[in-house]
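Homework help board

Subject: predicted structure for assignment chain

Our instructor gave us this sequence and asked us to write out the predicted structure in token form, then describe one feature. I got the tokens but I'm not sure how to describe them. Can anyone check?
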Amino acid sequence: MTFKHVALALALVGAATAAHAQNTIPDLRGTWTGKDKSIVYGHNPHHPGSQTAASPPRVRDFEFTFVVDGQEGRLIWGHNFSKAAATNEPFAWAISADGRTIIGADTDGYYNMTIQSSDLIETCYAHAGLGPTGSIVATCFMITRRK
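My token output:
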């Protein structure tokens, strides 16, 4: 076997492995939790107070739970709530073709997420002041699957 044959075989194995990785859809069903800080203008059920969007921003601690109620292929749905408010807010997420990137939305904001491992997801969330509360929020934090 010549060097060209070995190189071709390695290239084919690499391509097959990459294609398999892209076709592997992670199962994200279960309960995920995370806590960290967010920047908040105004207030909402998860960040209570009397501030308005015109008030100075606040850095707030939070603790969220995400319950993935269902998954069909790359489409995921469920609800979330925080330690401050049991809102059971619905969310919809979609896993991109790379098998690691997730985009999603809930009733007033958007998710941009990256799967780090089978039980760890970096979660970035933001919402503009267009929702019912008029609050503005941005944060990035890790969520872990409860075992």
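Reply (TA_rk): Your tokens look well-formed. For the description, you could write something like this. Residues 5 and 61 are 58 Å apart (CA to CA). That's the kind of observation they're looking for.
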